[in-house]
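In this supplementary section we document a worked example of the pipeline. Step one takes a protein sequence of length 154 as its only input; no multiple sequence alignment statistics are reported here. Step two produces a three-dimensional model, which step three serialises into structure tokens for compact storage. The input and output of this example are shown verbatim.
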Amino acid sequence: MQASRRLPHPTLDGVRTGRYEPRANTAIAKLIELTNRATAVSMDGTPREVVEPLVLMVAPFAPHLAEELWQRLGRSDSVTYRDFPVADPSLLVAASVTYPVQVNGKVRGRVEVPADAPEDEVRAAALAEVAGHLGGREPTKVIVVPGRMVSVVV
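The serialised model returned by step three reads:
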């Protein structure tokens, strides 16, 4: 249940900042991404704690659709008079990070490490993941871009 509780908060943060700037398409893309992730979470249906904020975030972009969805959720009030949801900062912090690992420019694996893992630990995990692709050779350079990727040059 913690995963579904955490799910809408990064989108809430992005849409809240993007809706007043000339990046409406970015905010809408985040909403589509959230919808795709929310429907993949559970076969029993998407939890209400994900759906309600999603409908409230859709309201500035598609008010008639949002109003219809809000009524289908069993709400008698109007979505127009509801406050825009606010992301919980404690739920924005990821517990782990997945790094794609490249060997000579091609992705050869992925490693998941704690978000606060030091660079040495990320490097070691990445090298262990792609050891078979190194062919027994020693890497000449290992570049760790924190939170993004690991590139191994052989």
